[in-house]
Amino acid sequence: xxxxxxxxxxxxxxxxxxxxxxxxxxxxxxxxxxxxxxxxxxxxxxxxxxxxxxxxxxxxxxxxxxxxxxxxxxxxxxxxxxxxxxxxxxxxxxxxxxxxxxxxxxxxxxxxxxxxxxxxxxxxxxxxxxxxxxxxxxxxxxxxxxxxxxxxxxxxxxxxxxxxxxxxxxxxxxxxxxxxxxxxxxxxxxxxxxxxxxxxxxxxxxxxxxxxxxxxxxxxxxxxxxxxxxxxxxxxxxxxxxxxxxxxxxxxxxxxxxxxxxxxxxxxxxxxxxxxxxxxxxxxxxxxxxxxxxxx
Length: 296
Known about the structure:
The chain is an alpha/beta fold. The protein has helices at about 30-45, 55-65, 100-105, 125-135, 220-235, 245-255, 280-290; strands spanning about 5-10, 45-50, 75-80, 115-120, 125, 145-155, 165-170, 175-190, 190-195, 200-205, 210-220, 260-265, 270-275. Strands 1, 2, 3, 4, 6, 7, 8, 9, 10, 11 and 12 form an 11-stranded mixed sheet that branches. Strands 5-13 form a two-stranded antiparallel sheet.
């Protein structure tokens, strides 16, 4: 059994500007997704599914297709749009914001029937992270409610050019996830690493705190459970303009209900990404170094 990789690429990257997934940052014009798919192929993933939007479908497919990867991996596309809602619900008038990352996952429910990993399109996760994830997913065939994620050290995921949002993880003695708290406006300050809460107060975070970078692993039952939870979410928040159905919310709910367990996997990989336009030179430099070292 070969696991599938689900790539969340529907976001246009408002802070960065433009379709940042198409930005050539590698020495030969490679985009970040090229590295992720190459690492996934080497780790043994058999299919990649891209969540995109109809508004940039052709631009995306011009670059990302099976031929682009030399036919070494099967490629499929699904679409995340605001009106992709369960029966009985509609988009509230005036809403433009997407429904969030776990809504994006639901778009792939009809094309994935095996254990799968999900990643952000514009993040570099590192080869070891894909190897660790693929190895674990291969043990989950036929399982339900046995999920996993790759955890990174918080200090290795920050931007020098602005604040970031991260899912801060709490684990038990067996390395299983107890809960994940979404923290926003995280950055380095004179006091170390801090985040800002809803009322503007600053709070410290440990540099070695384990955080989620949206590299999760699920079994196919996740789709049905998430869809039921999305109905509950829409009943409570469906008329709001900015509420989003996030992966951490769903995972926390399933763990709290006793339905699922999530193993937090360790990796030696270094994460980096283009959160802000000013991050680009750093990404270009790191990728060139990896090429010079013969990794790619």
